[in-house]
Design goal:
Blueprint: H1 2-18, E1 24-29, E2 32-33, E3 37-39, E4 45-46, H2 48-60, E5 63-68, H3 76-80, E6 85-86, H4 94-97, E7 100-102, E8 107-108, E9 111-116, E10 132-135, H5 139-148, E11 155-158, H6 161-169, E12 175-179, H7 180-189, E13 195-198, E14 207-208, E15 211-213, H8 217-232, H9 235-243
Parallel strand pairs: 1-5, 1-6, 10-11, 10-12
Antiparallel strand pairs: 2-3, 3-4, 6-15, 7-15, 8-14, 9-12, 9-13
Helix pairs in contact: 1-2, 2-8, 2-9
């Protein structure tokens, strides 16, 4: 019920924005990375990232046009001018900074261990005596492979996070490692599974950012200002709680 009420509030905010005199920006976002962006039954984009960019647009009084954009080639849409903004669970990296300009970080995107409640797993090192699920070739796969060995038979690889977490719930593996956002959403949607998170400071701390074309500092500054406003007025926290949990992260200072 809370999620539906908040979604309605977001739609109201977009309606107000649509009446504004500000510019309209085309926003590219993939539709396959739940809960950040995905297509609903009406083939409309929704998710954490979608709510976030709508809130930023409302705060900065500009309009947006959302376009489902495949991940392959999504960065090229900025340089070609087909998209003005892309928000699609994009991890900020030095390599990507050479192609696009990023907003301030808006979501901590590190890996996390997930285990059944009552598990004795407390760190990556303690996974050495466990069967561990990972998404094939993911950052979690790399981290676990460094701990257990790339060819360890204790590592079970899956095509996606939901499959991995279902296997964990069924007892096929005793721990799993994956993206914190996707795992938090799964736990939020399946409280009956009684899963809990375990952090480890060996996981690299990374962040998602909103991308614009290289050199478009005016638009980048608008996005940063909007993000700062929605953090300050509590909108960011409301969006985060809707999709994840009450442990709203403190974002790096802009």
């Amino acid at each position: 019920m809370i999620k539906h009420l908040f979604a309605a509030a977001c739609l109201m905010a977009v309606s107000v924005t649509a009446l504004a005199s500000g510019e309209t920006y085309v926003v590219g976002s993939g539709g396959t990375y739940r809960p950040f962006e995905y297509e609903n039954s009406q083939q409309q984009l929704e998710g954490f990232d979608i709510d976030l960019i709508k809130a930023i647009a409302s705060a900065e009084d500009f309009n947006i046009k959302l376009v489902n954009t495949p991940w392959e080639g999504i960065f090229a849409t900025l340089s070609s001018g087909d998209r003005d903004i892309i928000i699609s669970g994009i991890t900020i990296t030095d390599k990507r900074k050479m192609m696009v300009d990023f907003s301030a970080p808006y979501f901590p995107a590190q890996q996390v261990i997930v285990v059944p409640a009552g598990s004795k797993v407390t760190s990556l090192a303690s996974l050495k005596n466990e069967n561990v699920g990972v998404v094939n070739s993911s950052a979690g796969d790399i981290a676990v492979s460094e701990t257990l060995g790339r060819n360890s038979t204790a590592i079970k690889r899956f095509d996606n996070t939901p499959l991995m977490l279902e296997e964990l719930s069924q007892g096929g593996v005793s721990a799993a490692v994956g993206d914190v956002g996707v795992i938090k959403y799964y736990i939020n949607q399946h409280p009956d599974k009684h899963l809990q998170l375990v952090d480890d400071n060996k996981f690299e701390h990374q962040y998602f950012g909103i991308a614009v074309a290289k050199g478009n500092s005016a638009l980048k500054n608008k996005i940063d200002d909007g993000l700062k406003k929605i953090v300050a007025n509590g909108t960011y926290a409301k969006i985060y709680r809707t999709w994840f949990d009450g442990n709203v992260p403190a974002l790096p200072a802009q």
